[in-house]
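Ligand-bound model needed. nicotinamide-adenine-dinucleotide.
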Amino acid sequence: PSPLLQGKRGLIMGVANDRSIAWGIASACAAHGAELAFTYQGDALHKRVKPLAESVGSKHVLPCDVTDQASIDSVFETLGEAWGELDFLVHGIAFSDKNELDGLYLNTSRDNFLRTMDISCYSFTAVAQRAVPLMKNGGSLLTLTYYGAERVMPHYNVMGVAKAALEASVRYLAVDVGGKGIRVNAISAGPIKTLAASGIGDFRYILKWNELNAPLKRNVTIEQVGGAGLYLLSDLGSGVTGEVHHVDSGYHTVGMVAVDNAAA
Ligand code: NAD
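Prediction:
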């Protein structure tokens, strides 16, 4: 069988290092024949992202801070000129002030609320706006979310509220662009030790809790998220849109763990 993404071109946004979830998805896509472009946030990350991009043969490594409209525009202008069209996009971007990923949601400031929503939710819509005109033969847009959108998780706070809005935006976007043969989905990943996750209070405890209480009794890896990403980005997922697909060792299915099975 031919590789699933042979001849397809995709933009990967949100790689910070080789532990990033976006890198797990990019690796799976590259292994299945995709040609990739990458964005990085700020000069400090360029030196990390460039060698990763080059290791999968990428020729396009572009700066992009999603709070800056002009920087988003310039990514899509560059890709429009270089490729003329785009088949898929991965959005693995989120940010909130570390001080508010601890303690009570009740204490969220207006500034951080707006910033978290801008970077973690609106940016997906902003990039979709610019990607859709390039998806001339249909396409697939994918973002990353977390169970804290659906249920209260300790310390996730304003990020949970932003992820809930992100998941709703996946459904609205899916309807808006479905007629063009473009699909929009999210993967709800279980906790993974990454740069972004290290900002969340008691993250090690959250990891341990999931490991002990998820049906599979282990945490997920970026390779496992990559596998699900490949399915949603390729024709394997051609019947799927507006979906939030959990890759979390089944944790979201559990209401209560039996006593003989409990974490304690
Ligand atoms: P990561 O730190 O590797 O990636 C986060 C990325 O967001 C970084 O590349 C960072 O540069 C980028 N970013 C932040 N602000 C930006 C801005 N203004 N402009 C452009 N880029 C910006 O961490 P990750 O865990 O791989 O995060 C990727 C996605 O997965 C995020 O949406 C995160 O919420 C989500 N997620 C993570 C977990 C987890 O446990 N790690 C679980 C579920 C969902």
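The CA atoms of residues 94 and 120 lie 4 Å apart.
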